[in-house]
Amino acid sequence: MRHLLSAGDLTRDEALLILDTARELAQVGERSVKKLPTLRGRTVVNLFYEDSTRTRISFEAAAKRMSADVINFSARGSSVSKGESLKDTALTLQAMGADGVVIRHSASGAARRLAEWVDGAVVNAGDGTHEHPTQALLDAFTMRERMGRLEGLRVAVVGDIRHSRVARSNVLLLNTLGAEVTLVAPPTLLPVSVDAWPCEVSYDFDEVLPKSDVVMMLRVQAERMNASFFPSAREYSRRYGLTAERFARMADHAIVMHPGPMIRGMEISAEVADSARSTVVEQVTNGVSVRMAVLYLLLGGAIQGPGHQGETR
Ligand code: CP
Fold this sequence. Notes:
Blueprint: H1 12-29, E1 43-48, H2 54-65, E2 69-74, H3 86-95, E3 100-105, H4 110-117, E4 121-127, H5 133-147, E5 154-158, H6 165-176, E6 180-184, E7 200-202, H7 205-208, E8 214-217, H8 233-240, H9 244-248, E9 255-257, H10 270-273, H11 280-299
Parallel strand pairs: 1-2, 1-3, 3-4, 5-6, 5-8, 6-7, 8-9
Helix pairs in contact: 1-5, 1-11, 2-11, 3-4, 5-6, 5-11
The protein binds phosphoric acid mono(formamide)ester.
């Protein structure tokens, strides 16, 4: 594995290696000194052309916990505003010796293009409506920690599938790992190509809900909508929101997930989001471990394994 561009590029063994490595590296986050020397001397550039809270911060935390030098690049305030292209920005990073580039971009396919221009490892941190592979990996990690398995797990992914890179990456990865995914959305919020995705599709949340082990709610991505995809927020919430009433009809063992940012009161009620069966905060914590594992495996790490408890600084 040279880059991480799509969850669909990962074999089952590669995906499990990332999850197992993340589990070992999670122990670093529980120590008083949260630092390993593993990536000392390596440079990771976070190249963010789109807004982010969780992904940007957790990639930065992940790289710093392994002692990498981190350069944060935000398109706002850079020469992008003067018309500089992604390619010229990439070549500038290349000239500065980036060993790894983490990119978020509004254009689907931007990460793959970048990988053609730089020598370092490229990690896709979200490209348009296409993919967000580290989100799918942290979601799979969270499911496995909470439910003890992924094989045969019934996962409902609910909401704005059409504009969701999280949904596509989750479907591809969970299929590789043996889980059964059902996408739940109004017909207008499903992508045209959904028939080719390795999952089931339903328009009826109430029918799918009680049969699900995991209910993953997605944000309605208003910023990507150039038309009206449902009559009103209230109508959307009535058919597809995870309200307290629906939450009460979930299986007792089932968990609720959300990649964030959440629109409380629309796709998920505040009491469901804050309940003990919601993994929203755990997903953020696990995101750091999973991104540490991805950077560790892509950038080669040090001679010692990730469990090495030696030198810290
Ligand atoms: N889940 C996720 O990608 O969140 P951010 O947009 O805040 O990074």
